[in-house]
Amino acid sequence: MWFSGGSSRSRCAEISARFWNSPHRLTRGAEAPGYYLGAYTWHKAAAQYLDESEQVNSILDELLDIEGDPMKVFYAGLSDALAKEGAIVRPAEQDGRVASRALLRSWPGGGDFALNPHDDDSQCADPQMADFERRGVVGRSVVALNICLENGMAGRLAYWNIQPDAESKSRLGLSITGSPYPLASLDGHETKFIEVNTGDIYVFNGAHVHAVEPSADNTHARTTLAAMMGFIDDHTVVTRS
Ligand SMILES: [Fe+2]
Fold first, then answer.
1. Which residue segment(s) compose the domain that 81 sits in?
2. CA pair distance 165, 174, nearest whole angstrom
């Protein structure tokens, strides 16, 4: 689902500027080189993720304290829609501790992709996260939420029409990481390249393999405000970054 220009460019520019100016912005390692602010779950134990979430949520609260925060607006709309079905949306939690409310990240250009082909589903099955509530989404749809804050030279979203099965993931050694899928393994599967513009809010099934194209001149970054969500039972959607 794609909401073109779902958030104003000025609002996105403000959040983006706060991200680049923040002393809390960190560099991510070789598995996904780029910058980020917020906690992420990939290949991490639940306790560590929740520790990091606790530290960063107040920083995110301050950074996203802006009139019409697009993530807050999105969740309010989702909450209204779910309420009609008798369901709620809230952050994933464990022992009273809550998941990071968002992840800001920026992928600089480079190589075939700024972010390699991957799925967002496999990491939910990571045994290190076995005691975390979000594991309840395993076997249900994992939904990726992205809000594009800037996209200088138009790196597109690549989206393959394939949800790899457990046997394929195991053969490729990607059962709990879901990344990176070798391009050869994706041969023959339909691919869509979707233009992403500042202000776009888009949600998609994260079980499909997807990637971020590099920017045209390898210097401009695509920066997004992101989260994941999914039903853990028939009445509860949990979010996490
Ligand atoms: Fe992803």
1. 2-240
2. 11
